[in-house]
Please model this.
Amino acid sequence: MQDVLYFLQQLINGLTIGSAYALIAIGYTMVYGIIGMINFAHGEIYMIGAYTALITITGLASLGVAWLPLVLLVALICAMLVSSSMGWAVERVAYRPVRGRHRLIPLISAIGMSIFLQNYVHLAQGSRNIGFPALIEGGFQFGAADSFQTSISYMQITIFITTLICMTVLSLFISRSRIGRACRAVSQDLGMANLLGIDTNRIISATFVIGAALAAVAGLLLGMYYGSIDPLFGFIAGLKAFTAAVLGGIGSIPGAMLGGLILGVSESMTSGYLSGEYKDVVSFGLLILILLFKPTGLLGKPEVEKI
Amino acid sequence: MATHSLKHALFCAVVTLIIAYPILGLDLEARGTSVVLAGADTATVVSVLAAALVVFVFQLFRHRILGSLGTMPSLNPFANREPMPQDKRQRLETIALVVLVVAALIWPFFVSRGAVDLATLVLIYIMLALGLNVVVGLAGLLDLGYVAFYAVGAYTFALLHQYFGVSFWVALPVGAGLAATFGLLLGFPVLRLRGDYLAIVTLGFGEIIRILLNNMTWLTGGPNGIGGIPDPTVFGMEFGRRVKEEGNVSFHEIFDVAYSGSHKIIVLYLIALVLALFTALVIRRFTKMPVGRSWEALREDEIAARSLGLSRTAVKLSAFTIGAFFAGFAGTVFASKQGFISPESFVFLESAIILAIVVLGGMGSQLGVILAAVAVIILPELAREFSEYRMLIFGAAMVLMMVWRPQGLLPMRRIHIEINKQE
Amino acid sequence: MLEVRNLSMRFGGLLAVDQVSLDVQEREIVSIIGPNGAGKTTVFNCMSGFYRPTGGTILFEGREIQGKPDFRISRLGLVRTFQHVRLFSKMTVVENLLVAQHRHLNTNLIAGLLRTPSYRQREQQALDRAAYWLDRVGLLDMANREAGNLAYGQQRRLEIARCMVTEPKLLMLDEPAAGLNPAETRDLNQLIIGLKEDYNVSVVLIEHDMSLVMEISDRINVINQGRPLASGTPDEVRQNDDVIKAYLGEA
Model:
């Protein structure tokens, strides 16, 4: 019984982290789907979202605003605003001028951007990690009081539900709205979409903005969940999210969700049964294996080499 | 058009404010257990506003500014010059090289220990960057985990010395060979991957190596690292005050000169210089050989290369392995220079710095890469007050280089091949 | 020399090539023609090993080669060009030709580092062969230019020269005349016939330029929507009703 409860606990933790990874992974997968580049700086956008959320929460607290839903809502809006502006600006400055050049060039530009943003926050806010208040506390407990208890915190439930809402809204947006249709057209064939009068630059910008906004949501949620943030906080999370995107099949939004959950669960199982030190080894190992044996991921479309 | 560009300029200025003000203008400060918000000083706020204004003006007059930039005389005064005749240029280059090498040999005897020590570090980075240049610049494979091979070289020496008392000169080929073996083993499965996937997989590999070094405490000492790594000896001579190894003799006793702490630093520098020269010459020779040409062919057009009978795996693997070999080389020298190594020296940022050197210098260009290594390592030392901005500037420089000058500061030059008409 | 039997290639639900057969004899120029999207290039990609065909066999000098890796097929002497010129554009013209001779060269790393006499001799032979072919296609003066800076027609000729330095037995040309002006097309014509006459190379040609095809082909295969439509000498094909219908559209 205890074993089952322990397993359940790992599963819950894994699904929580995994759904947040999925939110970040959306940014990678959409950008890759449309312009075929890895937005290496996406993890930093997420980190900036977390910082903005913390700044907002701290600011509101000093102003005396304490009503939780309002605080969360304002923090969320500010984080999304700053992150998506950042996403827009990054694309404009670092990616648009090099679009269409040799594959390595946008990637190196993105790595440069990632280093730049990391140090931008590092210089502005210091390198130490800063405590993030856990605004949502409490939760449910299962199991006998004198032995191992499985717990689901309200925070975990919030993360899970928020992710589900975001994913649903995004799917509806992509399938129903005009911009969403244009997005799909551009990802099919950028040149053709251009000829048909779709403003592809605008659509690409929109992709970055949407991805960044979702990353900001994840930044707020995971900031509260982990309880502290620092400027390097985005780097590893970004890599994990990218792994999730590849795992599920890059370019596919349900794939990002699936990949995020699988990655989150396998990580928490590693921490729970092996050692927390090795969870990164497991997720990178997983990434390498997936790329070797199924480079298109679980839900990705097969690619035919164009000659 | 005017209203449109006004709207656009305004939009850009507002975005600038949004991305700059909260992060720069509002500082999170930890007070005890709680966090408070402090406004930044006036200078920061003013510069944020100024930045927004600059963006606004630039976007408003964007076309005019870019247009006038285009008519400006070229920044490079040699841009329109006729290329020098081949033989003359080669002679000049040879003379310049000889002068440089002689200067590099004499120079350490006249400067401070700190300067020599720094120069040794530069030489280590030159070896690393030349090695990575093979992988990224010539073969076009983006390796973001290059530092792993560096770590393999350094740890090989440290461990071999700790457990078997192996000396520098034995560890050098073993470390490089082992790093090359790692390159071969990693490369074999992953080199089939497309460019950007390869980048991520190598990054993951680099992280895995670092995490393993950090956690295999029984072998590597974990985060505490390994110390007591000896300096190189020359013909059995040690350069420390006292002889540490049985059977060695001390340099200052043999030659009956006063002991000086700078001896061993200079010797290490000279050894690094010789090894860096060796690296440069070997790789230079490679580029003129069939293997070097096939690296470039694969970078230029993989499909065409395959259609001409080049095996993609073999060609990529050779570049990857040779790159790893020289990283291992540099790692051994690094371990010897520091005397102590820990996983902290082998983080992703280190890979990014080496990559930045290659990119700034000009992918594929040896001379460019060497100059960039000198600049990237020395400039932050000269401007110490700006050293905390080093990585910020790196990042920005990488982006700007890709946007404006992806071929680097000193682009690679083709080798002129003399041919005679055949009957 | 080359026998393609019932070659099929399926991408997902799409049958791009369906039961195509093809024969090439020694010293013969065989053309594959057909409307756009008929699957001609897919046939090439299967023959040169870029695709693994989903059905059928390809025999080259009696050996089955279907599904073999591309670089192995090319080493057997089956070399191709591409519809869109694929040069190593940052490398010089002569370097392009040296890369192609990779397998004739001494690739031993140690020999190269030490520049042993045998290494230097092979290197010189490769240079001589490159010079010979540059002369043959009229690019000798361009030897040290970057290949990407050549004019389009020159790039096309360089691509053919690059195949020829590998000393192939069978040359596959994918729309070599595309984008050339009439004068250049005539030169190309001469060049291809010359390759056959002087170097005993067989040629498989995909081409849209009918005058070129009719003039130099020994036999022609017509493909339509992935299926073989007709084959025979230029005259036979010219008079074939199915071919006329396919080309003029169904009335």
Summary: Chain B has two domains: 2-63, 100-404.
